[in-house]
Design brief:
This protein is an alpha/beta fold. The protein contains ten helices and ten strands. Bound molecules: adenosine-5'-triphosphate (ATP) and magnesium ion. Residues 15, 18, 20, 38, 40-46, 87 line the site of adenosine-5'-triphosphate.
């Protein structure tokens, strides 16, 4: 079997004096869709930040395609085909939609073009000339996903991509993720919606206080729904002023 697309191997990491991750080992293979679950503050975003080289591995290793990239820069890691939709979206408020998308484009590296992003999210085409800060929360989230796709990733990582969005907008985003999965893209998803995760993911990784508490296939998690519910924050009702 070929090496996984990426793996973290017994990684310790943290911030200044606080250690947050303790011996974290997980991997995602080509074409696999994996959920990273855990309650607030358990270390999900820190795991993602470590994967992308935004914080260093204090111990353990980061492998991409089986190659040791423990000491690689965030830029070198992204170039290996990892695309991040960060918590909080982080789009450019003073660039318009089109400019936001072009800013991260790596042309020639794969199939993604403006036209394909607009086909995935027709709303973005309607809003192409609007500034980032004129978009609704849902549109900003679509833009953040589109921007990550413009880097032509082999692995897309979504950190709370449906957080705080109205149900209809959430459904649009899940539909887009389902479409990307059908195209064979590997995806790592952090989200609070257990039913959506059980529907779309092949495998689940559960974190608790910086440790991997459980990992397994969807069928196993379905059979032990209690385990999943114990490790997911109950999704808050969407704010009523959010119209998407
Ligand atoms: N920049 C930082 N500096 C210091 N400590 C941090 C920093 N970011 C996160 N932490 C701490 O690291 C721990 C894990 O946080 P992390 O953001 O990885 O959790 P999470 O699982 O993504 O939570 P959430 O569901 O709220 O997004 C928490 O105790 C948090 O307070
Ligand atoms: Mg987080």
């Amino acid at each position: 079997m070929s090496a996984p697309l990426f793996s973290l191997d017994a990684v310790d990491a943290g911030y200044e004096r606080a250690q947050v991750l303790f011996g974290v080992s997980m991997a995602v293979a080509e074409g696999e869709v994996v959920a990273l679950m855990g309650r607030n503050g358990m270390g999900k975003t820190t795991t993602i930040n470590t994967l992308f080289g935004l914080i260093p591995c204090r111990a353990g290793r980061r492998l991409i395609d089986g190659r040791d990239m423990t000491d690689a820069s965030p830029h070198a890691i992204a170039r290996r085909g990892l695309g991040l939709v960060p918590e909080g979206r982080q789009i450019f408020p003073r660039l318009d939609v089109r400019e936001n998308l072009i800013a991260t484009a790596r042309s020639g590296a794969g199939p993604w073009t403006l036209a394909r992003v607009y086909a995935l999210f027709p709303r973005l085409q309607e809003r192409a000339a609007n500034m980032g800060n004129q978009l609704s929360g849902g549109e900003q989230q679509m833009l953040a996903i589109g921007r990550a796709l413009m880097t032509n990733p082999r692995l897309l990582v979504l950190d709370e991509a449906t957080e705080g969005l109205a149900p209809l907008i959430r459904a649009e985003i899940w539909a887009a993720i389902t479409h990307l999965k059908a195209e064979g893209l590997a995806i790592l998803i952090i989200d609070k919606n257990l039913d959506a995760l059980l529907n779309i993911c092949d495998r689940h990784v559960v974190m608790e206080r910086g440790h991997i508490r459980w990992q397994g296939a969807t069928a196993a998690l379905r059979a032990d729904r209690r385990l999943a519910e114990d490790h997911l924050e109950i999704a808050a009702a969407p704010p009523s002023q959010e119209r998407g």
